[in-house]
Amino acid sequence: NHDKRPLVQKNLDGEIVGEFLSIAHASRSLKISRRSLSCALSGAQKTAGGYIWKRRWKMICRFRSSKASAL
User: What is the reported pTM?
Assistant: First the structure.
């Protein structure tokens, strides 16, 4: 399912404070609308519920590429 991609929740300092299995899971757990989370993930807005949101797989790809370039 398209909505089953993991998310990372960051505070405004960029520190990871949570991880969720999907937008729906984060929405239910934190009482933040799915639309607001989607907009934060797509870049249409900077935050949702006072947090920065990223897809987990994008963070893993960035880590791997920075790790590879350091070798």
Answer: 0.76
Helix (H, G, I), strand (E, B) or coil at 21: coil
Residue 50 burial (C-beta neighbours within 10 Å; 0-12, 13-18, 19+): exposed
Instruction: Write the pLDDT tens digit of every residue in 19-43.
Output: 999 999 999 999 999 999 999 999 9
By C-alpha distance, which of 17, 20, 7 is closest to 60?
A: 7
**47's tokens:** 């935050």
pLDDT for position 1: 46
CA angle 27–31–33, rounded 5-degree value: 55
Residue pair 37/52 in contact by the 8 Å Cβ criterion:
no
Q: How far is the C-alpha of 32 from the C-alpha of 62, rounded, in Å?
A: 27
Predicted confidence (pLDDT) at residue 68 exceeds the cutoff of 80? no
